Amino acid sequence: MRGGGVRAGVSELVVPESLGNPAPSAPRSCRHLVMEACRSWHSPGLEALASQRLRNAGLQARLRRRQLGHVSRGSARVFRAAMVLAFLFAAAVAFASDSCAKQVPYLVNRSLIIAAAKVVNVGRAPGFWSEVLPALQSVRYDVLATYKGKLADKQITVDHKVVSGSRLVEKHPPGLSKQYFAVGNELILFLQTPSQDIGDECAVEHRSAALERQIQDLVRAPIKNP
User: Fold this and answer.
1) Fewer CB within 10 Å of terminal CB in the chain, N or C?
2) In the chain, what is the straight-line distance between the N-terminal and C-terminal CA atoms, in Å?
3) For residue 148, how many other CB atoms are within 10 A of its CB?
4) Domain limits at 60?
5) Domain contains 51
6) 118 burial class (0-12, 13-18, 19+ CB within 10 angstroms)?
């Protein structure tokens, strides 16, 4: 009776993962304790059944670890892909900035007004791109300095176009980039009128002393149209 009752209990036993693959450093593992208990009841059949259940638990534990390993490798692949995309995005931004730096003479020649200004308010993003209809987002600025042309007011509001693919925009939702158009940022604006930029993706630049000197030198000796 005692052997039969224990046999039934072992057949229904769900062995924890730790029992299926005990730590090799443990002097007396849970596997050993179960097997010694079966031998103490003098039941070879019960000992064989317990051994089989423990082997199955070990296989299940190894399978779970292997599945977790696949998940970890998959996560690593996703992480690597994200890092590559981030690198490509940073490279594209750097390339665009370098391209704009080379276009400064052209921007100065094309602009009727060039001013340094601080962002004080950014209007709501349009949520769509400029295509058939222009998508505009308004930004209010405090004028800090004027390098070309004249501005009658110390504060201006410029309607910037939201153009897909421009370095000056964000995709979700379509609108102006917070990297440039954040309250407090000081920018250099290349304008056609006090309320409209020249429509180029290089029409807005972060303010810097080097760029100011370059603009001032070019304004003194403007480039003529070919």
Assistant:
1) C
2) 108
3) 18
4) 1-102
5) yes
6) middle
